[in-house]
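Morning. Coffee machine broken again, so started the prediction first thing and wrote up yesterday's gels while waiting. Chain of 117 residues, entered below exactly as on the submission form.
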Amino acid sequence: MKMKVANIFVSIGVADHSAGCAWWSTVIGREPDRRPMPSCCEWDLTDTVLFQVLDNPKQGTVDIVSLRVGDLNAEISRLRDAGFSIDEPEQVSGFDTLRIATLADPDGNTLNLLGGE
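Came back before lunch.
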């Protein structure tokens, strides 16, 4: 019998929860969908993918989050206008149009923004 997955949770642990939630709110472009507990802010990124910022830099963390966006150039412009430092997008080897731009959150977690195919 194969596993049936209903949701995927991606969690980032941060040292300063308030600053981490604010940073990711700016990146995502909206406030969290919910705060299920004082140490967690959470967004529904798709119907099945939930993204969490946790007040715990040692547990439940990943080093890299990659988000494929509809208009990479527009997202880069929006985030630069908000004061973020983002690398210039580069072509991803082996793909016709896929490009990647990278930035880091205040805790050093990498965020890759992907655009194209």
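Residues 39 and 111 are 21 Å apart (CA to CA). Going to sketch it on the whiteboard this afternoon.
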